[in-house]
Structure formats: structure tokens, C-alpha cells
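Trying the structure run again after the queue cleared.
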Amino acid sequence: MKRLSTGLTAIALLFLIVPRVGAQTKTLMGDVATVTATVEAVDASTRTLTLKGPKGNYVDVVAPPSVTRFSEIKVGDKITAKYYENVVLRVQQPGDKAVDSDTAGATRGSGAKPAATAATQRTITATITEIDQTVPSITFSGPNGWKYSSRVEDKKALAKVKVGDKVDITWTEALLIGFEGAK
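Done. C-alpha cells:
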């Protein structure tokens, strides 16, 4: 949900600065977050790890059956997770077909300790359904009842788009997870 919220806010702002000449594409690099936590407990029967975060908070994470090296994770191990996201948008031209696709993949690490990389990509065609100059804000709608509204900082940018304009929005996110032995 954070990805959707961050990505869509960025889209709403970026879309408004995209020139309306040709089928232009813009890429907005999103946040890169790195978190390191310590494995405090391992429950093999439920495949649950209890992790202690950098601020002393605890969180339980259930490893899916696809994590084949779960038994190698030990109390005291350090886990580092890096999260990347970006958004690409393309202003559609009249006659372009609508897009609605979703892909995902995962690769396990080959190092001495368990590791993995997972990525997802979602592309939809959204339509501008409302522009409110008083707020100022813009509202998009897309497939399966998807709807999103966002504030826009630059009122002049709203003058460059109109209700009914279409844009292809692609969100890409990746998560890299690695373990280090206890120190």
C-alpha cells in the first residue's frame, strides 16, 4: 500500500509536467529503503521469524514454502532488506489500446547464507476523470474500479491536461533480502 500511495502521488505530480507532444515516457525513481534487523526467534513449525528492528520494534514474518533455506536461519543472524521502487508513465495517443498487466518473479541467492530477490511490475491505463483547480487536485480511474486522487502543487500544470486524457502507468518494485551470520 505504501508503494501505491508513494507511486501514485509521484505520478500525479509528474504526469502534469509531461509535455503533450507525441507518446512521451518519463521515469520517476522512487524511494530506496534499507532496513537491518536481528533474528530474535525462529519457529520452524510455523516458519515464523521474529525480527527486532533498528528502533527496537519487533515484527513477525512468515516465510513461504518457496524459502527453501529457512532451516539455515538462526537466532542472532542479521537480515538486511532493500526496497526499490520506480514509476514510469506514458501519455497515450488517440487510438492506443488500454493496458492492464501484472508480472512478478523471484530469484534465490547463491551465497553462503539465505538470500532472495523478488520483483513485481504492474501496468494500467488510467483516465483523468476530474481536475479540481480550487484544491488543486487530479483524479484518475482505471481497470477493476481503481480510482486515485492526489493534490497537485503546480496549478499551471493542470492547465496542460484535461478530463478524458489517458496515461499508461507502470509501477516496478524490487525487494532484496540477505542474511549475515550472528556477530
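The chain has two helices and nine strands. Worth checking whether this holds up in the mutant runs.
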